What we know:
Helix content is 75%, strand content 0%. It is mainly α.
Amino acid sequence: xxxxxxxxxxxxxxxxxxxxxxxxxxxxxxxxxxxxxxxxxxxxxxxxxxxxxxxxxxxxxxxxxxxxxxxxxxxxxxxxxxxxxxxxx
Length: 89
C-alpha cells in the first residue's frame, strides 16, 4: 500500500524546492493524493476491507485540512497545486 522510494522521490522533487524538501505542504498534499489514489483502487477491488476504507477516509480528511491551510496562506499556490494534481473543479 505504501509508496515506494522512487515514486515518492519523484513527487518530492516535482513539488518541493529540492529533493530533500519533504515537509512542504505542497509535497505532503501530493504524497497524500498518491496514497489516496492507491487506496481507492484497493478499496474498489476489496469491497469488504473496512479498515482500508477507514484509512482512506482519514487520509482524505488530512488532505482536506492541508488544502484548507494552503488556501488560506497561499491562494495562487493552492490553485496551481489543485490544477497539477487534478483535484476539484
